[in-house]
Specification:
The protein is of the alpha/beta class and 319 residues long. 44% of the residues lie in helices and 20% in strands. The protein is elongated. The N terminus is likely disordered.
């Protein structure tokens, strides 16, 4: 019986068939989804088996070592220890090469006069542990040229253990004074060292900003007048434009910005005929063409004034 008191009847005939069909229809989507998932999983499994790569033996160890080295390098850079790491690697490398028979046992050095052997080797970075095989010839040459005395250098390796080093030094050309400091300079204006050696005191003295690079040409001009040159204490570049000569007796000779040679051509005969540069004067001004102006010292000026006062006046016309 059903819940209303009727007799329950079996699901037969057309009604039962319809109910069974609806149940099957409701169950079909679930089965279709399950079959689709199974097909997808099978396809993925097949593709993954095709893409599988067999790595050579030892790759894992190499990768681990690479990661460790990269970590050490990063730590060295971040901790500012890179120079120490590089030095340690270099020492280890040189140690291996030296053990193999490539230690530098002989160093032939030539061309050095102003720079000592110890200074040359220190600048070149050559020590007792340096190996010949790992010595960079070009880098060593460039390091040697960082010393202002060394204009050029040659480095030659002769295996298994000999090194030949030749240097070409600059020559001291003049003394250069700037802001109260005196330095030794080469002809090209390179500052070689502070002036401390008495043996260099006979070098000509140039003074002023820019004088170091213009000294070669101006001193060559003075060499054309040896009598005047030997009486010059210093050549002073004024405003990086023109030169003054300070003579040994304190007289200043003012030269023009252009054509200083013409001014000196006028000065030399005046001195020869009138001993101009040995008189009691303060300055000789040659800056104006075809004109020479002389400034007397205070004492000479007073003496001249007194002499003019004592000089008898010429009588005029008829009284």
């Amino acid at each position: 019986m059903d819940d209303r008191g009727g007799l329950a009847q079996p699901l037969t005939g057309s009604a039962g068939s319809r109910l069974a069909g609806r149940a099957v229809a409701r169950a079909a989507p679930g089965r279709r989804a399950a079959r689709a998932r199974a097909r997808t999983a099978l396809a993925l499994e097949r593709w993954s088996s095709r893409l599988e790569v067999r790595l050579p033996r030892g790759v894992g160890t190499a990768a681990t070592a690479f990661v460790m080295l990269a970590s050490l390098a990063y730590g060295a850079v971040e901790g500012d220890h890179l120079s120490a790491v590089v030095a340690a690697v270099k020492d280890a490398r040189d140690g291996v090469a030296n053990a193999a028979g490539f230690r530098i046992v002989s160093i032939a050095l030539a061309g050095h006069r102003h720079v000592s052997r110890e200074e040359v080797l220190a600048v070149a970075g050559i020590t007792g542990s340096t190996s010949l095989v790992f010595l960079d010839v070009e880098r060593t040459r460039e390091r040697l040229k960082t010393n202002p005395w060394i204009a050029d250098a040659t480095v030659l390796k002769l295996y298994p253990g000999e090194l030949q080093v030749g240097v070409k030094e600059r020559e001291p050309f003049a003394l250069w004074q700037k802001e109260g400091r005196v330095s030794v300079i080469a002809a090209d204006g390179t500052v070689l060292e502070p002036y401390v050696a008495p043996r260099l005191m006979k070098l000509p003295l140039v003074v002023g900003q820019g004088a170091e690079t213009r000294a070669k040409d101006f001193l060559a001009l003075l060499d054309r007048y040896p009598a005047l040159r030997d009486f010059v204490q210093a050549s002073v570049l004024v405003g990086e434009r023109r030169w003054n000569l300070r003579l040994k007796n304190g007289i200043d000779v003012l030269l023009p910005e252009s054509e200083p040679a013409s001014a000196l051509e006028r000065l030399v005969p005046l001195d020869r005929d009138h001993s101009l540069i040995t008189r009691d004067i303060v300055a000789i001004d040659l800056r104006l063409p075809a004109q020479v102006t002389v400034r007397l010292s205070d004492a000479a000026a007073r003496a001249r004034i007194e002499a003019l006062k004592d000089k008898p006046k010429k009588k005029g016309g008829n009284a």
